[in-house]
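Our preliminary data section would be incomplete without showing what the modeling component actually yields. Below, a chain of 233 amino acids is followed by its predicted structure, encoded as C-alpha cells that our downstream tools consume directly.
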Amino acid sequence: MPAISQNKPYRVGRSRTGLGLFATKPIKKGTKIIRYFGRLLDSRKKKDDAIENKYLFELNDRWTIDGSIRKNVARYINHACKPNAESDVQPRKRRVIIRAIKNIEAGEEINYDYGTDYFKAYLKPIGCKCDACEKKRKKQRAEARAEKLRLKQKAERKAQKAAGKLAEGKGGSKKLPTQKAGGAKTNGKRLNGHGAKSVLANGRAVKSEIVVKAKSAKATTRAKPERESLATA
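Predicted structure:
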C-alpha cells in the first residue's frame, strides 16, 4: 500500500467491499480531493487495446488511463449510486480529478459513480454494495416481512371466521314439525279448534261452520211460535 502524506485529507481503510478511501478531516463541497492517474493507453494500438482490468478509466474514444499502478491511491475509491464526489474528466489534459460534490465529514468514505458501462459489467452481476443500495435492499426485506405477516394474520382471521360459522351451524335452532292437512298442532290440540277439519285446497266447507249454521237455524224456528202466540193474545 502506498504511503500517504499526513497533509492529505484521506486514508485507505477497510470498506464493505474491501478497501476504500476515507476522509481524515472535513472536506468542503467543490474541493479537489485527489487525481486519478496511471499509464496512458492508446486504443489504436492492439497491444494497449488488449489490456483489460477494472481500473481502466476511459478519457475518450482513443485514450484510457490504466490506474492499476499502486501509486494511484484514487483507485481505492469505491462506486456509489448516491456519491459524495465526482470524477472531473479533462480529455485534453488527459487527466481525471476527483472532486467533492457534498460536504464530507471526517471518517466518511469517499465515493463516486463509476458510470453505466462499468456498473453493468462489474457491479450488477454481483450486486452493488453501496450504502444507497444496501438501504434499498434492507427496506425491501422489511416490506417483504411485513407483507408476509399481513398475509399470515389475514389467513388466521379467515380461519377463525370459518370456525365461528361452523360452531353456529352446529348449535342452531331445531326444525319445527311439518303441518298436516288437518291443521298444525300445539300441545296436541289443533289450531283451528273444535277438533274440526280445516278447509282443504278443493274448497270443501269446514265442519265447524256447518254446525254453527245448523244451530242458528233451529233457534230461529223455535222463536217464531212464541211471537205468533203473543200477537194472538
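The helical segments are 46-49, 116-123, 131-170, 207-232. Residues 195-203, 225-233 have pLDDT under 50 and may be disordered. Preliminary results of this kind motivate Aim 1 of the renewal.
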